[in-house]
Input
Amino acid sequence: MDLRQLNALVAIADHRSFSAAAKALHTVQSNVSAHIARLERELRTTLVDRSNGTLTPAGEAVVDRARRVQRELEALAADVASLDARVSGTVRCGIIGTTARWLAPPLLRSAGIELPGVHLVIVDATTTSLVPGLVDGRLDLAVVNLPLDDPDLDVEPLFDEDSVLVAPPDHPLFSSPAVSLADLAEHELLLEPPGTAFRDDLDRAAAAAGVTLRAQAEIDGMRLVASLAFQGFGAAVLPASAAPGFVGGAWRRVPISDVAGRSVGLARSRRTRPSAPALAVRELLFDVVEANVPDQPGIRPHGRTPQ
Output
């Protein structure tokens, strides 16, 4: 078994055919076929269905391991480079969309200045989508909603944030100094659908307060909910990071007195040792949060855990 064989199988998984895999690897199809055949002989199983170019269950299992091997090799090169004080390499960092809106710009600016040798790839997705990427090695780090109970991940808190009402100027609650769940229950709201973590937490809090929240519309996507509220389509309950101060418009952020906020944390896989560039980006994330939360009302940073 050698790296060329594993790379060929990963390329087939990514590009769905032998010919496309060969093109991606800058080689000929016969070489890819030979690599796969040798790997199948060694493992004594079929890894690729030749009729359609898809992987067999055994092939999927091998690809999962092969991707980790690729990541470890990247980390090896990055760690060696860092011994000469040259932190360099690729770091793939996932960030939940509501947080990415305000965190990604200063993170990219700071990385360009402080970590010029690091190629930072940011993936904007939900926590549910980011967790598998951490587990299988496609992501090095991810900023996610907490709590996160996964035995394969190490998680440390990054910041806490309040829940707020974003109200347009013509809404009855626009001028309120603060509102309660009972106040919110008297009006229709822009909400995420049931089954999403933020909506379910909100509904549980409302039930505990003896009220039921009513939806003007249900939108699956926190950033779209926020955008509609900013544009005056209705009032919405959002985490504070979804309503950053730099967004223009006449909307107003109103504190909610009896709704707990949420915690956001930084997660990484326990299965592999983080590379030097990943550790450097981790430190930079805490620095960026601490430097920028004064401009983000309703957000409180956590101190970092010594590494």
Summary: The first helix runs from residue 3 to 15.
